[in-house]
Write a structure and sequence with these properties.
This protein is mainly alpha-helical. It has a single domain (about 5-180), classed as Winged helix-like DNA-binding domain superfamily/Winged helix DNA-binding domain (Arc Repressor Mutant, subunit A, Orthogonal Bundle). It is built from 7 helices and 3 strands. It has helices spanning about 5-10, 10-20, 30-35, 40-50, 80-85, 90-110, 140-155; strands at about 25, 55-65, 65-75. The radius of gyration is 19 Å and the shape is globular. About 10% of the residues are buried.
Length: about 180
C-alpha cells in the first residue's frame, strides 16, 4: 500500500490544486479560477484534506466582510519519495500513471479550448513543447541528471507572476525501458 502522502497527491483534483499553487500563495477563490470545473464545495474539501495531510499550509488569513480569507502555499515541492510509494500494487501504479496522464490530457485540452474550433494552430508559437527521449545512463548518471532537472524546476517555481510572464505547465516522467532495449 502506498503511504498517506501518495494517497493525497495521486488524486486528480488534489494533483491539480498542488500544481496550481506550486509557485504561488493563493486563496481558495484564486485556486478555483485555475480549476474552474471543480465545484466550490469539492474544492474546499480537497484543500482541507491537503492542509490536514501537511502538503499545503495556510500562510495568511485576512478578514473579509465577516469571514476569514485564507491564502495557501505548498509546505514543500510536491514530490513522492521511495517510502511514499513503497508497496504499491500493480493496479495502484496503473492508477497513478493514468491519473498523471489524464492530468496532462486535461491540461492539453484546456490549452486547445482557448483556440477557435476551426483555427489553424501552431503550438510552438505558444510555447508548447512535446518530446520524448531515450537515454543510456548508469544509476549515478541518472541520479545526477534527475537532480539537475529537479533543481531547475524548483528554481523556476520560485518565479512570481508579473507582466510578460506566462503560466506554463511542465511534466516529466522517467520510465525504465525493457532490459533488452538497453543492451548495447
Amino acid at each position: 500500500m502506498p503511504g498517506p502522502k501518495a494517497d493525497l497527491m495521486l488524486h486528480p483534483i488534489r494533483f491539480r490544486i498542488l500544481t496550481a499553487i506550486s509557485s504561488y500563495h493563493l486563496t481558495a477563490r484564486e485556486i478555483s479560477e485555475l480549476v474552474p470545473d471543480v465545484p466550490q464545495t469539492t474544492l474546499y474539501r480537497h484543500i482541507n484534506a491537503l492542509v490536514a495531510g501537511g502538503l499545503i499550509k495556510v500562510v495568511e488569513e485576512k478578514p473579509i466582510r465577516g469571514t476569514i480569507e485564507r491564502s495557501y502555499a505548498l509546505t514543500a515541492p510536491p514530490s513522492l519519495s521511495a517510502e511514499d510509494v513503497r508497496g504499491m500494487s500493480r493496479q495502484e501504479c496503473e492508477q497513478a500513471f493514468t491519473m498523471f496522464l489524464s492530468s496532462l490530457m486535461s491540461d492539453a485540452q484546456r490549452y486547445l479550448d482557448t483556440k477557435p474550433r476551426n483555427a489553424k494552430i501552431n503550438p510552438m508559437d505558444d510555447g508548447v513543447r512535446i518530446s520524448k527521449a531515450q537515454f543510456f545512463l548508469d544509476e549515478e548518471e541518472f541520479q545526477r541528471m534527475s537532480a539537475k532537472i529537479e533543481e531547475l524546476m524548483l528554481k523556476a517555481t520560485q518565479s512570481q507572476p508579473r507582466a510578460g510572464r506566462q503560466r506554463r505547465m511542465f511534466a516529466c516522467v522517467f520510465i525504465p525501458a525493457d532490459a533488452k532495449d538497453g543492451e548495447a
